[in-house]
Amino acid sequence: MKVFQRLLALCFCVCISLIGNAQAQNEHTKTQNLKETNFYKIQKEFNSKWSGRSPVKGQGFNVFRRWEALMEPRVFPSGDITLPSTTYANYKEWEKENLSVTTRSAPNNWTGLGPFAKPSGYDAGVGRVDFLKFDPNNSQIMYVGTPDGGLWKSINGGASWSTNSDFLSVIGCSDLVINPKNTQEMYLATGNWEDDRRSMGVLKSTNGGSSWSTTSLSWNATDNYKIRRMIMDPDHPDTMMVATDGGIFRTTDGWASSPDNSGLDGNYNLYDVKYKPGDFSTVYASGVSGSEVFWKSTDYGETWSAVTSGLPAGSGVSRIIIGTSADETDYVYLLAGDTNNGYKGLYRSTNSGTSFSTRSTTPNILHSNSNAVGSGGQANHDLAIAVAPDNANKVTIGGINQWRSTDGGSTWNLFTYWLGIDTDHPGEGSLVPYTHADIQDIQYLPGSSSTIFATSDGGIYKSTDDGASFTDISNNLSIAQQTNVAHHAINPVLIVTGLQDIGTIKKSGNNYSVINGGDGESAFIDRTAENVIVTSNPYGAHDISYNGGVDKDPMTGIPASSEFYAPISQDPSNADIMYAGGRTALYKNIDFYNHPNTWTTAGTPPGSGSILEYVVAPSNNQVIYTIKADAIGKTTNGGGAWTNVTGTLPLGSALPTQITVSNVDADKAWITFSGYSASNKVWRTTDGGATWSNISSGLPNLPFNTVVHVNDTPNDVIYVGGDVGVYQYENAAANRGPGSWTLFNSGLPNAKVTDLEIFYPDTGAPKLRASTYGRGTWETEIQGAIVPVELVSFTGEAFESENILNWETAIEINLDEYQIERSSDGDHFQMIGKVIPGNLEFDNQYQFLDRDRTDGISFYRLKIIDLDGSFEYSNTVVLYHKGRDHGIKVSPNPATSFVMVTGLSEENSNAVLRDQMGRIIAKQSVINNSQILLSYLPNGTYYISFSNQMGGEETTLKIIKI
């Protein structure tokens, strides 16, 4: 979603990165032909259709629910599904009215974190690719269009890709044509036909896609058109046609003057248009209009005639597309989906579309199964056809899988399979090539009958042996449609994020791997043990991994969610506690590491329906806020009792999306709203929800999805992410007046921001991270709390009778005091003393003696407090004191691969392995003579703590790994 400048020559092609899936809107045949259909009507018809039925893979149930979950907040309460298409117009209007926006943009420079390549792991992918086009004069130059990641170009046959559309109005697009007489001239069909983002018309580029200008085919969102296909007459490149849900639009002067719509007008809902090979006076169109599904023109598209001979009635067709071949130019194939989006049939004409015959109606090759058994499919989402250029009887179709016929569509063989192995016939040992599920486009390399490409919801695949094998050539396409981002508390390069169609991926350094499949959703990394990762799939299907995502176990003991998205997170102050929303009640696990399937309710917050989001206050984990569609709930005793704190919040005008709370004051909270209620975007409370104030003034009228508070900032800095951009707010921003909103977009693609998180390193500036729907994860440095101390060092040393802490500072201005905090587990800290600055024997050098330390390891940190109450923490110091001998031994020590444990007094004990920084590396249950593996660790000093299963006295031993 890129910058829309209609008057300056850039017209926006789509409006927002709204999740979209075509069949969502078109689940009902009658519905798909009504452009004015309301969201709630679509929802009602879908629910009626599925009443009493069990969802089956590949029948569009989950795709609709995903679309529903992401569309409903944006169109509430009216249900007007054209609203998302106003996003960019609203954004540009806001930008025009805020002429100082460039001077008000805070200093920032976003950089991408990827994924920059296909992640490793089974069924991986980079994201959805809708179409593939070749330069007419150089087939090594290729273009692909993505629904939310822009237009991408390769100049080396797909070995690498690049985009320059991040800051233009070209992000979602439905087709591209290129002038063969001047390949720098190209035309882009805007919008995305399968989403509910309407087209803004056709854009033109004269420099190979570097910049775009509007043409005479230019619409407003309220015109309510979708472009499904665009074609160009190669002999007369100024002659083009687009197939839309409002008929055919045609130009003979390169869209310079008003286009003609008199042939097939607004009464025709069209899906495809193609020229007859070698004869561009003959044009074919397919779609659904009453009983008609196919039309033919013999005068370059000026007039059209319906063809019904041998074809099904439109009432039984959901979508229908065209295939032709240069081998037999009179052949025309029509591939049709039925009203359940399964296989209606393949129909062929051998007389240039004058009449048709049925080639096959079974088996259901649009089903997900490899044996094509079962009803339904996803014809309104994935449907493609290619006829071999040298053999008009060789037909390849794409649905969830690919199938091929060598007899003109009478019989079919599985061509590629989304699971890779034909599991429905294991006895036969049948193997077929793998491509990611949901085929969007199939194209032969120009001039070749053996090199074939398929685009899908996972990327681009290429075969050079006519389909015997396929290779993923998505390479560096960074087009991930991400729903969230979560990082480890300490490791700066460890991130997990959920991706639509791909699953949950982990970024470890520069490596990306899929650690869970499906549609990735809410996830987190245990901040005390980076190998422990919790992930989610739709409807609250949560999994836990203890080895960094290599293996996972389903988390049971908690009911399924009725919501497509169900949040789950770790308590901010007690690492053993986990919460899960997405249900009517808030669920809690108080020992999730050892007992991930033991859940209890933390009460039922006010409001109807499920908990859409929640937040636990970092300063007091007994305070929890929850979001339901019609109420904001709050508890101050961990769920023992709940109160309704909705107050004056505009829940009847907009749906709330996310809530955050100050890390030092549980009474300060901020909440964002979706939708297009112009004055309701962000609200704030400073008294725990007793009253709310609207701080939306200064924001554009677009949906807002996420909010995050910057720790320890005196001015309570927050960042919000919307369907366009990130914005910064300070309660009393210096030089900008109170309540200032600042655009925070420098370098960030204009993609929808779905989640914001802040990583706080031990040293240096905090990093704001954003997940985007279409361009992956991004990061920028921000300014954290401003405290008047430059800490040079904070160290410690353990002696027989005491632990000594030393620190040195370089700058001290307006400093109030240092508080020394100690912890036995690195998680729960308590203050053990204070040091007042000044009156030092040596300038800026401090010392503190702890004579009350316990045996084992102790964690120390400084809380550095300013006179205004703001503060920050130092690094953590870990000191070890052996203490008395409890009889537990580990050997050998030093060790290379493992240590053996002896001397345990109980049959079972818990062992926790930490590094020198006190970070938990691993946890496991041990018995006498059991081994703790060390081979995977770098050389250095580590600590192993043992405690019995009842959580009794702990013993800690130091080991050396060599």
Automatic annotation (TrEMBL):
How far does the signal peptide extend, from start to end residue? Answer: 1-24
SUPFAM superfamilies per record:
Oligoxyloglucan reducing end-specific cellobiohydrolase (SSF110296)
Gene Ontology biological process: xyloglucan metabolic process
> Taxonomically, which superkingdom?
Bacteria
The record's section on Gene3D superfamilies has: YVTN repeat-like/Quinoprotein amine dehydrogenase (2.130.10.10)
UniProt keywords, alphabetically: Signal
State the coiled-coil residue ranges. Answer: none
Q: Which InterPro entries would you find in this protein's record?
A: Secre_tail (IPR026444), WD40/YVTN_repeat-like_dom_sf (IPR015943), Xyloglucanase_GH74 (IPR052025)
Matching entries from NCBIfam families are given as: Por_Secre_tail
Question: What's the protein called, per UniProt?
Answer: T9SS type A sorting domain-containing protein
Q: Which organism is it from?
A: Portibacter lacus
